């Protein structure tokens, strides 16, 4: 997919140029190739070498990651009483300004978060002269493989913890050709870095002086012969001096990191780089510094083991770290490509890279529009069918009146109108009006029954009568006659009293028109 570009980690050393190509896909990353080409001549030939290397091995140059040499970088460890990234970004330049050997405008400053909690943050600030950055980028630009990311060589090694088993506190030692770079890892995070001008070339020159041979023969002797005896002593004096200096520099590095380790013991010294293959070097350094020393091994069994299957991890470790920096598994974020060195986006290349993606997006857009139109048409048809059904139900419920507008609004208006008419006409149980009730009461009174209706009131579903009769028997008979009519079945006689003036009886008749409640 064009979006997941292949990453090229480009390790530009003084002895050789190494490259690793990682392919990114939805399942993760995988190694495509690891290459190494020995440098010939001075640095002026670097651009030509890079062009030939990219052409011969067909290396991708769209997403290149490189590192500025450690001897061109200085670092500072700073603690802040806050942890917000924006505050740290603004505070780092002010803290390092007083210690700079250059004017602030002549350097580029970046930083790496080491640790943090709620109240503080520890960072490592890295400073590089703008001139050094410009000189490093120039031959890469000429070779048309300009890096998108320019890392700090020392801290960069922390990315190895993404695939290699590097737990606890350990010092990574990249023993290169002209220099050696150290990186302290604490719980798989880089916390400090240092570079010294001592590497395999110094050892080659020492062998040449010891034996009186040329550099080429001394290089072969270094790679093929045993230079360290079983008693952990070098076989020649000049060679011994170089190895002794290397061990002293490692001890000095560990001493400078005591405050960083905060009393924590170093778990191991891990060696890699071309000079790490010197036979017996690991045992020699372990004896001299008193710490377990080992060469970098292969990653644990699994998918990550394939990332170094095409090359020796001891030789290609820094290159692999560069490749990992360009993937989501990166552990560092330092990048000196800032301000005037920031990557300029090539819109023409951008258009080319994403042309296929654009075509797919266009097809997806057309399909989305077609899907939307189809779903809209089906929904409209379904809505018309519902409207027809609702119209039929409305005509059935309210005959003779056509439906107009919202069916719920029309039905609510029709019910409200019916309630108003019922309230005005006085419609009660059995669809009887108030006049019908009076007629029914009059019809239910026998002609031979001597009673006088003195009062009558109709309140909602209740009819109340005040009646004068000649005797108790007349009251009982009136109640029985009224109850024969179903809507009057709840008629009750009550409040019977004697009329002293006329000698008859007065009583109340209460008729409830509410429907009877079914008993369970």
Task: State the main characteristics.
520 residues; alpha+beta; Gyrase A, domain 2; five-stranded mixed β-sheet; 15 helices
Strand content is: 15-25%
Number of strands: 17
Please state the oligomeric state of the protein chains shown: single chain
Question: Distance between termini?
Answer: 74 Å
**Superfamily at the CATH H level of the domain at 429-512?**
General secretion pathway protein M, EpsM
The helical percent reads 25-40%
The low-pLDDT segments are none
| Strand line-up across the major sheet | 3-2-1-4-8
Class derived from helix and strand content: alpha+beta
Provide the CATH topology of the domain at 429-512: Gyrase A, domain 2
What Rg is obtained from the alpha carbons, in whole angstroms?
Answer: 49 Å
CATH class of the domain at 429-512: Alpha Beta
Q: How many DSSP helices?
A: 15
Mean pLDDT: 85
Outline the structure in words:
The structure is a single chain. This protein is α+β, with helices and mostly antiparallel strands and 520 residues long. Among the domains are: 362-425; 429-512, General secretion pathway protein M, EpsM (Gyrase A, domain 2, 2-Layer Sandwich), CATH 3.30.1360. The chain contains 15 helices and 17 strands. The strands form four sheets. Strands 3-2-1-4-8 form a five-stranded mixed sheet, with helices on both faces. A hairpin with a 3-residue loop joins strand 1 (7-12) and strand 2. Helix 5 packs across helix 6 (215-224). The radius of gyration is 49 Å and the shape is elongated. The relative contact order is 0.09.
């Amino acid at each position: 997919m064009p979006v997941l570009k292949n990453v090229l980690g480009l390790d530009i050393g003084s002895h050789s140029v190494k490259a690793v190509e990682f392919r990114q896909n939805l399942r993760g990353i995988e190694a495509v190739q690891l290459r190494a080409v020995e440098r010939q001549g001075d640095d002026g030939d670097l651009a030509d070498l890079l062009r030939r290397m990219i052409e011969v091995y067909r290396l991708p140059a769209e997403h290149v990651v490189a590192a500025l040499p450690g001897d061109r970088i200085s670092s500072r460890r700073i603690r802040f009483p806050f942890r917000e990234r924006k505050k740290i970004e603004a505070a780092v330049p002010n803290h390092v300004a007083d210690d700079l050997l250059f004017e602030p405008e002549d350097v580029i400053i970046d930083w790496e978060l080491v640790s943090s909690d709620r109240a503080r943050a520890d960072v490592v600030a890295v400073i590089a002269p703008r001139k050094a950055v410009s000189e490093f980028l120039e031959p890469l630009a000429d070779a048309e493989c300009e890096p998108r990311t320019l890392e700090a060589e020392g801290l960069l090694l922390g990315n190895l913890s993404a695939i290699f088993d590097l737990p606890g506190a350990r010092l990574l030692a990249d023993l290169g050709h002209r220099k050696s770079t150290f990186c302290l890892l604490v719980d798989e995070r880089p916390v400090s870095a240092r570079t010294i001008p001592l590497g395999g070339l110094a050892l080659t020159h020492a062998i040449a002086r010891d034996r009186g041979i040329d550099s080429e023969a001394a290089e072969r002797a270094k790679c093929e012969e045993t230079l360290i005896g079983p008693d952990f002593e070098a076989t020649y004096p000049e060679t011994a001096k170089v190895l002794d200096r290397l061990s002293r520099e490692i001890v000095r590095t560990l001493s400078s990191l005591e405050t960083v380790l905060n009393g924590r013991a170093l778990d191991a010294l891990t060696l890699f780089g071309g000079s790490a293959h010197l036979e017996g070097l690991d045992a020699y350094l372990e004896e001299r510094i008193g710490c377990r020393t080992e060469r970098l091994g292969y990653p644990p069994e699994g998918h990550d083991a394939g990332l170094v299957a095409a090359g020796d991890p001891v030789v290609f470790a820094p290159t692999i770290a560069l490749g990992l920096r360009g993937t989501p598994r990166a552990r560092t974020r330092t990048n000196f490509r800032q301000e005037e060195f920031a990557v300029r986006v090539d819109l023409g290349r951008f258009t080319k890279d994403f042309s296929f993606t654009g075509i797919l997006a266009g097809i997806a857009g057309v399909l989305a529009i077609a899907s939307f139109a189809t779903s809209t048409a089906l929904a409209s048809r379904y809505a018309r069918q519902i409207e027809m059904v609702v119209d039929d139900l409305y005509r059935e419920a309210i005959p003779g009146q056509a439906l107009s507008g919202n069916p719920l609004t029309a039905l609510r208006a029709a019910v409200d109108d019916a309630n108003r008419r019922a309230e005005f006409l006085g419609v009660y149980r059995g669809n009887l009006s108030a006049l019908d009730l009076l007629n029914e009461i009059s019809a239910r009174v026998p002609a031979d029954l001597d009673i006088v209706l003195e009062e009558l009131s109709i309140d909602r579903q209740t009819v109340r009568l005040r009646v004068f009769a000649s005797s108790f028997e007349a009251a009982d008979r009136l109640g029985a006659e009224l109850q024969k009519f179903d809507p009057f079945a709840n008629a009750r006689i009550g409040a019977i009293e004697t009329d002293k003036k006329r000698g008859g009886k007065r009583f109340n008749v209460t008729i409830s028109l509410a429907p009877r409640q079914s008993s369970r």
